[in-house]
Automatic annotation (TrEMBL):
PANTHER family, sorted: AT11025P-RELATED (PTHR10809:SF6), VESICLE-ASSOCIATED MEMBRANE PROTEIN-ASSOCIATED PROTEIN (PTHR10809)
Stretches that traverse the bilayer: 229-249
Biological processes, Gene Ontology terms: endoplasmic reticulum membrane organization; endoplasmic reticulum-plasma membrane tethering
Keywords, alphabetical: Coiled coil, Membrane, Transmembrane, Transmembrane helix
Membrane topology of the entry: Single-pass type IV membrane protein
MSP domain residues: 2-122
Family: Belongs to the VAMP-associated protein (VAP) (TC 9.B.17) family.
Name of this protein: MSP domain-containing protein
Amino acid sequence: MTLELIPNGDLVFKGPFNTVSTTTLKLSNSGNERLAYKIKTTAPKRYCVKPNSGFLDPHVSASVQVMLQPQPAGQQDDRNKHKFMVQWVAVPESNTDDVESFWKQDLTKLNAHDSKLKCVFADEAPAAVVPNDSYGHKDSDLTTARVDTGDDSNKSRLKQEFDRLKEENDRLKLDIQHMKRKDQIKQQELRQRNTGNDRIDNPVVDRFKPSQQQQKGLVLFGVPLTEQLVLVAFVLALIFGFSLGYFLFSCGN
């Protein structure tokens, strides 16, 4: 009867710890008996374990998710005291209880076993230390190799994209200028065409245009007759006729 734990010594939780940090514990039944397991912790309010108990058939494994909850505000950090214990026991063939009922019975007669795990918290990955080499270099003389984060390749790719967009922008500017010139040429040709049409003589229209003599008015004895002059002549003729008639009427009496 053997229950193997992976890891079997430390449960490592990686930061940041202002959110839930999860690690996995693998349980494997390498024996020929059915096993029941149960997981306990010294800080049950800080951890969520799924599943925290169960049965394992022979040569079967199970993965347990252990989730560390964020540190409550104002509470003292006691992570250095956090520990886990995995209990397991062989399940009798006559057992018909579920896992919760099984663990409520007296286990002293069943020869229960347990394994303890210590919690380790890795806020940051430790820096790599280069040992002294065969040439006698000291650690202080060596420079830590720079980790390639891909920044250089990203910068190069962004620069290429910027250059491509700049070329495309310049090409669009040239196309716009060319279109403007073509539009100006078309407008100039249209204006010239309209001006040329205005200068063409139209005989049909000319027939209805008033002649120069009509535009100047009637001419009598070389004197142009305007509307005002005709009106004055009419008034004078009327006065003359009235006077002549009055004179003849007086002579007859």
